[in-house]
Amino acid sequence: MSGTSASLIDLADTGSRLEGAPAEDILQWAISSVPRFAVSSSFGADSAVLLHLLAQIDPSVPVLFIDTGFHFPETIAYRHQIAELLGLIDVRDLRPDLSVAAQGRLHGGGLYVRDPDLCCAIRKVAPLDAALADFDGWASGLRREQTIDRADTPVIQLVRRGERELVKAAPLARWTGEDLTDYLRRHDLPRHPLADAGYPSIGCAPCTRPVATGDDPRAGRWAGQSKTECGIHLELPLIPAPGGEAS
Ligand code: SF4
């Protein structure tokens, strides 16, 4: 994707135009406009929503799943269940260069406790960066209400990731948790099996705890640590979020 000022202006205009559009229109625009496009999914609590929208538009679009080696067995089972249920044709399991055992030999066991940023860099950020080398843009399930850091998430933006510029879409940016629940119910879609067992947000097993009813849904992620993001969404934005300034 070219980083010319013309493309910046086009994307800013498109982002403004699609700000209030239905999620399926945002995703449809991205799939049809960005030459090589993918969707990332954690196959977490409510991931079936974005993947169901994708399946209605084009089930052959690659789906990127970062298989860190630390997932709950239920997450791996759910990844296969949803792929089959929705007829997703190209789900790619992205794996780190280091196996869990090799990481332990190199950095010692329990890196996720001693240095979770390094652990996420090895097991999440690097595999996604490597996979995105084959794409011009991607969509994720980011939503504004999830965290303060995500509150300004644009539905469409241009980001710099390393040396490259990519289009990033967040079709569900404006959705609430109730919207997701309602969509899953209306389309009879299964949630992650742990979602109704106190896990409203699900990442790697060592870094995910159940939360009490009514608590912040992401309170169980890296509980007791200052960390709130794994790092895969911390790119440099090149066009402003609605009402904001570009970096
Ligand atoms: Fe490691 Fe935890 Fe990050 Fe997973 S979420 S990559 S276990 S620090």
Question: What structural class should be given to the helix and strand makeup?
Answer: alpha/beta
Sequence of strands across the biggest β-sheet? 3-2-1-4-6-5-7
Query: Between the first and last Cα atoms, what is the distance in angstroms?
Result: 19 Å
The radius of gyration computed from the alpha-carbon positions, rounded to a whole number of angstroms, is 17 Å
Low-confidence stretches: 243-247
Order of helices and strands: HHEHEHEHHHEEEHE
E-strand count = 7
Helix amount: 25-40%
Shape: globular
| Most strands sheet | 7 strands, mixed
Ligand set: iron/sulfur cluster
**Mean pLDDT across every amino acid position:** 91
How many helices does DSSP assign? 8
Determine the strand fraction and express it as a percent band: 5-15%
Quick overview:
The chain has 8 helices and 7 strands, in the order ααβαβαβαααβββαβ.
Main traits of this protein?
247 residues; alpha/beta; seven-stranded mixed β-sheet; 8 helices; 36% helix; globular; disordered C terminus; binds iron/sulfur cluster
